[in-house]
Amino acid sequence: MLFRNRTFLLLMAGDFIAGTGIWISTIANLQFMQHHVPSDLLKSLILMCGLFVGILLSPKAGIWIDRYNKRKVLFAASIVRCLAPLVMFVAIRFDSVACMLLAFVIMQIAASVYRPAVQSSLPAVVKPADLLKANGIFLNVDTLQRIGGTALGGIMVATLDLFTLYALSLVFYILLVFCTVLMDIPESEQSVTTKGGKLRFREVFPLIRSEPSVLIAMVNTAVLLLFLTGFNLLILNFSELQQAPDLMGWLYAIEGLSIMFFAAIAKRWIGSKNLVTGSILFMFLFAISFVGMSFSESRLLVILSFGIFGCAFAFFFPMITTIYQLKLPDEARGRFFSFKSMMDRIMNHIALLVTGACLDWIGISAYMIILAVMASLSGAITFGIAKKKSIEVRQQLTGTVSV
């Protein structure tokens, strides 16, 4: 059972601590900038600077994950993360924006290494039969850290001074270090043989091109990023359009609860079905949810559509993550997940600009129809390719027991 797997539980606990810490630190950094950085443009540039450093480091991070023992990589990333609150103590003491920027960069550096390392470690610590369920739990942890991190960060910023807040962050990051010390992540024979050789980040590209299932998953994910990146902006727009501030809370709650419920039962429903065609079919469910959201003045339809979106999300993302983990060799997973993280960050910046521009120029209803058409077209095209080439990836129902 997954819940008796110590290393898996430690990985999930560590990811929750790390993710929640990022959300809390981001809110605290915004609070710090509110007092010391009057320009909104400068605030945006500071935030983008940290993200840009994370993008630049991603190729190197992938090589480190594939070259070195993953537990040691996670340990090093956790130690680096502990430096961020320490630097913020200096920033608070001297009202230094430069130190705050350095702390934010340190957080992004640690995140660019830690998360891909966790994703590439999962196949080594769970049985193949439990991989889909593990990714579903991982998605639930992500959802909890997103909801809990923002809520907790808002409460803590309102009730605690920044020094105390960062001191508590440091305590949690030290716990994260202890979690990584207790992990036991075995290395495959293929991974061990690559340690002495020279690894290049670009070696992952031929692997991606040679696996149609991976390409299909990446294409469909790119379409969904247009919605996911502008998620907060869209919720705000729905709330303003209906002149109902409470709608924001309902939409966040319905989407989050829907994800957590359906992610918990994803493995039972999917079983040994083809993950490629299964994930593609959920693109049409995404399209249905977007069509429902296009009725932007209907409170009931918008809430229901966010629930449908959460359901599709809960199945789609564990399925495509499992495809990546099953089809890519262990010695290349670190570079792949680092590459994917890098591309997601770049796409996020582009998609956020596109979302904002479309909301201003054509309105939210027309924009949701465009997203529905794009999701349907992407689903139809990739489904045709998958059927033509007989692309299949299935979850194994048996496998050797992992540590």
From TrEMBL:
Keyword Transmembrane helix: yes
InterPro entries found in the cross-reference section: MFS (IPR011701), MFS_dom (IPR020846), MFS_trans_sf (IPR036259)
GO MF entries: transmembrane transporter activity
Membrane topology, record value: Multi-pass membrane protein
Keyword Mitochondrion: no
Top-level division of the source organism's lineage: Bacteria
Key words, A-Z: Cell membrane, Membrane, Transmembrane, Transmembrane helix, Transport
Record-given protein name: MFS transporter
Protein source organism: Paenibacillus larvae subsp. pulvifaciens
